[in-house]
Amino acid sequence: MNKIRAATLGAVLALTGCANLNPFTPYEQPKVEMPAAWTGLPQNAKAYDNAQWWKVYGDATLDQLIDEALAHNEDINVATARIDEARARVVLADADRDPTVTANFQPSITRITKRGSAPTFPGQHFTNTDYLATINASYELDLWGKLRGATDVARANLLATEAARDTVRNSLTAQVAQGYFALLALDAQIDTSRRTLETRQSALKLQQLRMNSGVASEFEVRQREAEIAAVEAQIPSLERNRKAQENALSVLLGRSPRAVMEGNIARGTPTAPADDVVPEGLPSELMLRRPDLRQAEQQLIAAHGNVGVARSAYYPSISLTGYFGGESKHLADLFIGPARIFQFAAAINEPIFSGKRIGASVDVAKAQEEQALAQYRQAIANAFSDVSNALAAQQAAREVRVAETAHVDALQKSLALAKLRFENGISSQLDVLDAERNLLQAQLNLTDAERAQRAAAADLFKALGGGWKAQEASR
What we know:
Blueprint: H1 2-19, H2 60-72, H3 74-95, E1 100-111, E2 127-141, H4 146-212, H5 218-252, H6 257-262, H7 286-289, H8 291-311, E3 317-328, E4 340-349, H9 357-423, H10 429-463, H11 468-474
Antiparallel strand pairs: 1-2, 2-3, 3-4
Helix pairs in contact: 2-4, 3-4, 4-5, 4-8, 4-10, 5-10, 8-9, 9-10
Coiled coil: 221-248
Family: Belongs to the outer membrane factor (OMF) (TC 1.B.17) family.
Protein name: Outer membrane protein, multidrug efflux system
């Protein structure tokens, strides 16, 4: 008896000593050297802080398309389903911290042999019935925080999954806006090409009349025909690109295969931002704006927690089990006092030798934490690189659009002068054809420059994390 008491006392003292040891260490956000302020910002720029940043374009059609994409895009649906999965995993992890209670009813009939090695005696019953009914309970004491740590890890993974969904939303809105602008640009380029074709066809008819009158030569007519063929060859390529862009945009909108084949994408009239867009607030706030950075940090938090979960395997596990019920050979006597049975037990399991499995598990968790830390730092560096690139691209796009606008104006005047010189016999038709050819290409370039300026603003909003204020408010 004294030995039992001594063993019990020793176990209690050992557990008390272990209780003062914590396999988990507090998480500390890694220190990152952040810039004090944004650099290279354009002058006379404006900071937009609307959660629905795409409204800066003032296009109701674009607003509707983005709403449709957010509601039906399959990538959004996948990300939402992953959130549901992560939320269920939190419930599973948290359920391990609660007791488990089950009910058991076990009727049985057993017959023993009369020809066995065991002796028999007169009046012996060879057939026995038994009824057993119990309520079973089990519970694991979480003295070292292993189960609580697993729940925290699952919760961090849930937050990372939610941030991943926000990343998909942020990328999707930018893709829809840029795809929409590309579609409008292709529409404008096709319209410009067709107007140019009509103009050149009219000029060809005039040259044919001049040739029939002996004023113009066949060479000049063939030149006009060649220019018409060049524009006619350009239009099918533009129409093919427009169809491909419609299909890509339909997929982003989450439309059915039938709707994708129809390619019915509404068009509106967006405006270019009156001012360049600049980040609002300090660079350090980018950590809160960008969902991919929140995702990377939550993954780091989860990896840090997994180290503690792995270390907790060094500590003993304490389980409490028990049952209460009745057992009788007659079903009617199952719940009477003499048939009552119960058991309450405690089990302590302390690992002594595991072939370095626990140590290897801890090393694996630490290595995964180092990977998550490196990915977190890389994500921050990429984020600031994205913002810097987007700011430079926005400024360059604006300068290109201004230059292309001046280019088109100059070529329009040049074409008018070339026609005037040709009509007065000062220059040949080649000068007119060159001016027309250059003007067409400049007009196509200007259309693309306008698209690029709108797309550059969308890129910057994407780099800044999109509607970050709304996302923070939702939390």
